[in-house]
Amino acid sequence: MECRNPLRHPRGNNHLVPGIDLERLFTNFHLTGTLDHDVGFSNTGQRMQLRGHSSFDARNGKGTAVELFRVAEFGDIAAFVSPELWCVGRYMIVRHGADDTSVIIQHHLVNRNDVMQISLAGKNALVTGASSGLGPFIVQALDEAGANIALHYHGNKTGAETVAAACSNKSAIIQADLGDTHSVDQLFDNARAALGDITVLVNCAAAESQNVEDLAKLSNKQWAMTQQANVQAPMKLIQHLAAQQKPGSVINISSIEGSRPAFGHAHYATSKAALEMLSQAAALEFGPLGVRVNAIAPGLIHRDGIEEGWPEGVSAWKSAAPLGRLVDPKNIASAAVYLASDNAASISGSVLTIDCGLSVRPGW
Questions:
Q1: Are residues 341 and 232 part of one domain?
Q2: How far is 92 from 71, CA to CA, in rounded Å?
Q3: What percentage of the chain has pLDDT greater than the value 90?
Q4: How far is 72 from 29, CA to CA, in rounded Å?
Q5: In terms of domains, do 54 and 145 share one?
Q6: How many separate domains does the chain show?
Q7: DSSP letter string over 96-108?
Q8: What is the pLDDT of residues 226-275, one digit of tens each?
Q9: What's the CATH code of the domain at 253?
Q10: Are residues 30 and 160 in the same domain?
C-alpha cells in the first residue's frame, strides 16, 4: 500500500529504526494491486485511520528501490476489513525525501475466529494507584480493551482526572487512603456504586517503593504503614470482590523484590513477598467462586526522568538484565489486560515476572 501524504500517530511514540536490515525484515516481499479501504490500524494502542483508494507495488528484491528507503517506523498491524475478516501483518513507513512518504504493508487475510482477541467489554475494573506511575498505563490498556474503570487516587486528584478524561468508556475517580481500613472499605463500595459489580481488580498502589531505610533503623510506624498499604489493603479489596459471589479476576502488582531483597528495602520486599503469597492463598480459597487471582512481578520500570535522576541505578540494571533495557510499563499493562480477560480463564495463583530476564542471572 502506498500513500503520498505523511502518516502520523495521533499520540506520537514513533519507533525510529536507523539502519534496519530491510532485506532481512521483509524477505521475499512483493505486493501489487489496489485496495479500497476504510479500516483502522492499531499499533501498541496507537490508533490510525486510512480511508480512500490506494495502489501498491512494493518489493524487496536485491537491487530494487526499497533498499534505498529510510525506515522511519515499523510495527504490527491489524486491519479490520470486515467484521469477520482481518488483515494482519507488518507495516513499514519509509521516507523517499522531505515530502514523500510511503506506507508499505506485508499482510495476509485471516478469519476473525482464528485470531486471539482480548476484550474486556462489559467488565468493571477498579485500579488502585491509578493517578501516577504504572497506574495510568494499566488504566489506558484496560480502557482500550473495553472495560469501565474506577480510578483510585490518594492525593493526586489532578492526575486521576487527567487519566480518567482520556478514557473512552465509563470511568469514575475515587479518593481513598489505603492506610485506613475504613477508607479501603468505602473505596470498594464507591466503585461498585459508580460502575456496578467489580469484576476486575488491579492492586497497583504501593507504599515505600522508592524509600530506602536500613533494617536496623526501620521504625515500627514505617513497617506498619508499608504492610497496611501493600498487603492489608489488597487483602480487604479481594475480600470485597469475592463477597459479590461472582466470577472475577484480581491482578496484584508485586515486584521482583518479593523474591530478591535489596539493601534498605526490607519493609518493601517483605510486603511484596506477602502479596505474592496472598495472591496464591486467595486463588486457592476463592477459586470455587470463579475468582482468579494472579500477580505480576516487574523489575525496574522505565519512567520519565529515571535516567537523569538515577543514572548509576539505570546503568547497573541495564548491565545486569540480559535484554539490556528497563521494563516498558506498557508491557506490564498488556499482561494485566490478558490476565483480566477470558483468554486467561485457566490461569490462577501464578506470579508473572516481567524483568527483561534479570531473574535468570546466577546469584553467585
A1: yes
A2: 7
A3: 64
A4: 18
A5: no
A6: 2
A7: SSSS-EEEEEEEE
A8: 999 999 999 999 999 999 999 999 999 999 999 999 999 999 999 999 99
A9: 3.40.50.720
A10: no
- Percent with pLDDT over 70 in the chain: 68
Active site residues: 268
SS3 38: strand
Does residue 17 fall inside a structural domain?
no
Cβ(187)–Cβ(195) under 8 Å?
Answer: no
From residue 105, give the alpha-carbon distance in Å to each of 30, 47, 59, 72, 80. 10, 16, 10, 14, 14
Output Rg (C-alpha) for the chain, integer angstroms: 23
The pLDDT, as a whole number, for residue 84 is 54
Output 110-118 pairs: Cβ under 8 A, ≥24 positions apart: 110/85, 110/86, 111/84, 111/85, 111/86, 112/83, 112/84, 112/85, 112/86, 113/84, 115/78, 115/86, 115/88, 116/343, 117/343, 118/145, 118/337, 118/338, 118/341, 118/343
24-40: average pLDDT: 38
Which residue, of 66, 94, 114, is where some domain finishes? 114
Asked whether residue 288 is domain-assigned, the answer is yes
Q: Do 105 and 129 fall into the same domain?
A: no
Residue type, 47: R
Is 221 found in the same domain as 194?
yes
- Cα gap 277→274, rounded to integer Å: 5
Please indicate, yes or no, whether residues 150 and 42 belong to a single structural domain of this protein.
no
Same domain, 62 and 211: no
Any idea how long the chain is? Answer: 364
Residue 43 has a CB neighbour count (10 Å cut-off) of: 18
Alpha carbon 27 to its chain centroid, in Å, reads 31
3-state SS class at 359: helix
Same domain, 105 and 230: no
On the CB side of 359, CA atoms within 13 Å amount to 16
Residue 195 contacts residue 211 (beta carbons within 8 Å) = no
What residues make up the domain containing 89? Answer: 22-114
Strands (E), the chain: 30-43, 46-59, 70-80, 85-95, 101-111, 124-127, 148-153, 171-175, 200-203, 248-253, 291-298, 351-354
Q: How do residues 130-165 score in pLDDT, each as one tens digit?
A: 999 999 999 999 999 999 999 999 999 999 999 999
Q: Tell me if 213 is assigned to some domain.
A: yes
Place 363 in a pLDDT band, splitting at 50, 70 and 90: confident
